[in-house]
Design a protein that fits this description.
Number of helices: 4
Order of helices and strands: HEEHEHEEEEH
Number of strands: 7
Strand order of the largest sheet: 5-3-4-6-7
Distance between the termini: 90 Å
Structural class: alpha+beta
Helix content: 25-40%
């Protein structure tokens, strides 16, 4: 009796075709997944931008502060390094979005805690493409995971212990970066933005790869080679680092560079 069967060559050809199709399709699937995460993070930043705009309307058009008056003190301070990590170390202004006065009454709230009443969801601080190294609140999933950074050019105008700027000081509100993604292993709310150009002259001796939004090597643009930004008029959009860094585009960060 004659039996029909695939030969070894035929099986190898089929396997090769499957491998080729997989090699073609898997990157497409990965890009589609990352695009979905990019859109999700863009939505997060849009909510933060809207919350910030609501905050400015409640506080005489002034943005969230980095330095706030401590109870029982006559000075203003940055959020202090009294938020302890599980290994016993402290992490200064790298503070969780929901940890504030409730945990440490003598310590100031950070910008994440300040905005929380406006959007009422600590989950929006988490970038899906980031890899959280510490998520203490809620344990399963956690709420102290954040991938977003508040530019200190807005929170203090680039001057240590200065108040947050007001909308009236902005010549180009729609072109001024307020909050953006770090893209690193994220577990904190951050205040950053001074890294980079000390001049309003573009590319004044600074390497764009080492300036905001990529102040450090682990601040990776995870979303299709770029990251999401929210601006001081509340709108959010995606952009590549070479379109947004402070060395080439100081006016996007520094209010004193705007005309």
């Amino acid at each position: 009796m004659k039996r029909n069967a695939f030969t070894l060559i035929e099986l190898l050809v089929v396997i090769a075709i499957i491998a080729i199709l997989a090699a073609i399709l898997f990157p497409v699937f990965a890009q589609a997944r990352e695009k979905a995460r990019q859109v999700s993070c863009l939505s997060n930043l849009k909510q933060l931008g809207t919350s910030a705009m609501m905050y400015t309307q409640d506080y005489d058009e002034q943005f969230m502060e980095s330095y706030r008056l401590h109870e029982g003190s006559d000075g203003t301070y940055w959020p202090l390094n009294q938020y302890a990590k599980p290994d016993g170390r402290t992490y200064g202004w790298y503070t969780g979005p929901t940890s504030g006065r409730a945990m440490y009454p003598a310590i100031t709230d950070n910008w994440g805690s300040i905005l929380l009443p406006y959007h009422k969801s600590s989950q929006i601080f988490a970038c899906l493409s980031g890899s959280a190294t510490w998520r203490p609140e809620g344990e399963s999933g956690g709420t102290d995971n954040a991938g977003y950074i508040y530019s200190n050019w807005v929170s203090d105008g680039g001057q240590y212990l200065a108040p947050a700027i007001k909308l009236s000081r902005l010549v180009q509100a729609a072109n001024t970066i307020m909050i953006y993604e770090s893209g690193k292993a994220c577990w904190s709310i951050e205040i950053q933005g001074w890294n980079g150009s000390g001049s309003c002259v573009p590319n004044n001796g600074y390497d764009p790869n080492n300036t905001s939004p990529r102040c450090y090597g682990d601040w990776i643009p995870r979303h299709m080679g770029g990251r999401n930004f929210v601006f001081c008029d509340g709108h959010a959009k995606w952009g590549r680092d070479d379109q947004m860094n402070v060395a080439a585009f100081p006016a996007k960060w520094r209010i004193d560079c705007q005309q």
